[in-house]
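Course assignment 3, question 2. Fill in each field.
Student: A.L.
Task: Predict the tertiary structure for the chain below.
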Amino acid sequence: MFSSINQLPNRIPPSDKPDPKAAQALQEGLGGQFGEMRTMMQYLFQNMNFRGEAKAYQDLLRSIATEEMGHVELISNTINMLLEGASTPMPSDFSNSQLPLSVALDSPNIHHFLVAGQSSRPVDAAGNPWSATYVYDSGNLVLNTLYNLMLEATGRLQKCRLYEMSNNKAYRATVSYLIVRDLAHEKVFAKALETLGVNWNKALPVPKIDTSGMPEVKELESRNLHNQQWTFTAESSGLSKIFNGSSPFDDGGELEAIDGIPPGAPIPNLPDAPQEFASGLDGELKRLTQQVQKMETTGSSRTAASKKK
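Answer field:
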């Protein structure tokens, strides 16, 4: 079972301006072959299908799979923020040829507006739907781990390319965070291979990507975020049996396996978009939802009070 916390793994600063083109580029990091949906599903299935008694490696997979769920939420929310404000408010009538969604015709992905109500989609930057055929799970621990290292290395390579495509603050914050976390995951799988006796750095040289000119990345690495991995569980985990000691890369880092979850950040609240008919609540429907919200608040207060007793 998974426990949900209503926070994002990293703060998304306000977008400089609406930017559908940057949103479209970021779709590759979400639904592309080497995007966050791929890593989430690949590690989940490798975890669920795990065979044998080497449970420390299963704990490792479960930890990263759980983190990747948060990355899917982070990148989806960032795309939403980049799309927010791109269209114009709903006019009182259309007699003056006002077209609130005319931006959709100039957007690189009309489906952001036409299908998703100005929101993210489970597709890549070319609009191709995410595919389950991306998921690799051979059942062989060494082969899976080798493939996972390659997946994280390629994902980080693509995110470094994404970094160079836009300087929008919301976009850069998320891309930089994912660059750093992909590096941490590369190290997790590299250490796992070392414990399995695999001389990975000769068999599979990981590309050395210079991110020293990326200030947002440097700031995150100054907090050692590229050498840390959380267990994402309140239960015991074998992660620290594998992820410990010196970094497997020649960067002088010391690895940290940390119990629990990292500090979180607020999830942006998207306002109604009447021009998209989203959320589509008229006066009566809003009244009903407000009643439900009031009931939820009252119920939460009673639960908190009963716990104090």
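Instructor remarks: The radius of gyration is 22 Å. The mean pLDDT is 93.
Grade: pending
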